[in-house]
Structure formats: C-alpha cells, structure tokens
Amino acid sequence: QLAGMAVIAFGLWLRFGGVMAGFASEKKSPEYFFMGLYVLVGAGALMTTVGFFGCCGAARESQCLLGAFFACLLVIFAAEVTAGVFAFIGKKVAIQEAQKIYEDTYDDYMKNPGGKVNRTIYQHHLALQCCGKGNMEQQMGLPCPENIQMPKASNCLVEIQNIIDAHLHLVGIVGIAIAGITIFGMIFSMVLCCVIRNTRDMI
C-alpha cells in the first residue's frame, strides 16, 4: 500500500509539479510522455487497492484472498515489464513530440512576437532553464528568464532531450523498485498460503 501511494505521488509530481508540467498548460502537450505518467498513477492506485486486500487476506488467514493477491501482483508485474519496454521504445517519440511543441511555439513567436505567444515561450524557457535553439543572434530578442547559464542552456531542444532522459531514468528506477517489491509480495503471499494450509491440516 505504501509503495502504491508513493508511486501515485511520484507520478502526480512528474505530471503537475515537474519541469515538463509547463508544457501541459497550453493546447499542445507531450501526450505520449504524459500518457506514461497516467499509466504510472493508475498502477500505483491498483497497487494500493491490491495491498489492502492482501492485508485483509493475511489478517483473516484467507487462502482465497491471498491467492487473489498473488494473481493481482502477477498481473501488475507483467504490466510493469510491458510498460518498461513501451517506455524504452517510445522515448524517442516523446522527445520528438516535446521538441516539436517548442519549435512550433518558437516559430509562432518569430512570426508575431508579443501577446500570448510571448508568455508561452517564456514559460517554456523558465521551466526548462534555457533560451532559444542555439542561434545567439535570434536569442537576443527572445523572452528569456534571468540567471540562466549561457551558452550551456542556450539550446532548448537539447535541454528537452536531457530532461526527458533524466525523467525516464527516474521512472525506470521506480519501476525496478516496484518490481522488486512485487516479487517479494508474491513470494510472501505464497509462503503465507502454505503456512495457513499446513496449520489447518495439522488441526
């Protein structure tokens, strides 16, 4: 249950409080990346629910509930492996999608500076701590946040790739931790089932 709640909190933080959250405030957003976060939150909610039934099964010494708990953990484990493969294959698509959103905003600003586009590109720059696409001449006219390191953070396309790579690594670490907990949960549920059966046979 605790692991499930931690996963929910982690997924919501990445979606609404992380660096990429700034891309979700406009009409366009990196849906492929956010879809993975929604799956992560859903898996956390399922883990929390399954954990509750596992506790009930252990408290009541119910082989039926413990067997159901084992089956649910097995499904969650298979889903985690599938999601990991999906995230690895789709990483390039997520990066390209986020870069395309920035490039569209950048082009709109260059065609008509000011107004809503000005606020949008500034939000992107503030969230990513970068400015422009590496062209120092055009960069001078862009709305850039203060105190960003130049020219290290002058290319937002590179920063987007770095940030998504870093976030996916975090998701991967969390996924491995959840997989380990899931395996231990399956082992312990089977051990409890065997102990309960042996105890009842002795009685």
Automatic annotation (TrEMBL):
Membership in a protein family: Belongs to the tetraspanin (TM4SF) family.
Species of provenance: Mesembrinibis cayennensis
Transmembrane stretches, start-end: 6-25, 32-53, 65-90, 170-192
Record's protein name: Tetraspanin
GO CC field: plasma membrane
Coiled-coil zones: none
Keyword flag Membrane: yes
Family matches, as Gene3D superfamilies: Tetraspanin
Annotated keywords: Membrane, Transmembrane, Transmembrane helix
Localization annotation: Membrane
